[in-house]
Amino acid sequence: xxxxxxxxxxxxxxRHCVSLCDVRYYLDGRSGIEAFQKxxxxxxxxxxxNRALAAPPAPIHGRHPLPTPTLFAEQLGLAGISDSDTxxxxxxxxxxxxxxxxxxxxxxGQNAALLSGGLAAWPSQLETGQPTxxxxxxxSVRPWxxxxxxxxxxxxxxxxxGTSVFDSRAAERYRGEIEPLDAQAGHIPGAKNxxxxxxxDGHNFLPPDQLRARFEAAGVTEDSIFYCxxxxxxxxxxxAAEAAGYSRPRLYVGSWSGWSSDPTRPVATGDQP
Length: 273
Prior knowledge:
The chain is built from ten helices and eleven strands. It is an alpha/beta fold.
């Protein structure tokens, strides 16, 4: 399978044989599709986070539950992405959100990678104006593999058995000092903090050897589990771990938004797991 992160030089060389997807998404309410329509890498098609990559938010399930496999196949088919396409995804924050699409495709066995540096890395003129509508295609429906996912109860069991679990959010959210999005502040008891932003030098990913050193220092192992606020940016840590040479870690999709919406779940604060 293709490496989980590719450089812009790789993209320029292989542009003719990949499908390029723009996955811009903003927590402050700005429109990703409007940003895409204003300027994009030539030939890219837009993939909407809330329409294609997540089901509606719900208590326990979190802010970005996985969509049904049928919905995912339909939405990518409408964007002209076939089962056999190699997908390169980007956003304008170095892949922090586009990682969700890449992870979803890789777990169902399709070649996909993040563009390191994102939109800002593109070396030539951007395409502007109304984009060309893609030609829809039929995609097969592939179920989400259970081996890639954990539920809240499975997460508790994993922690009790000594499995390392990592919270991908910023340190201040992990500690419970602020919580701009979810029901409670804090983190899952037993989880360590490994902020996703530590994978970067600016908007570019660190080299694989530096990523490896980062994950080894944190105690990441082959059976580690990652979560974040809503199961989106944790995908970035998972792809970075793959790039560093680990087998793909598992994801708790509900993440903090799902956990903290359940009044029966305990909450930890401060620096300690």
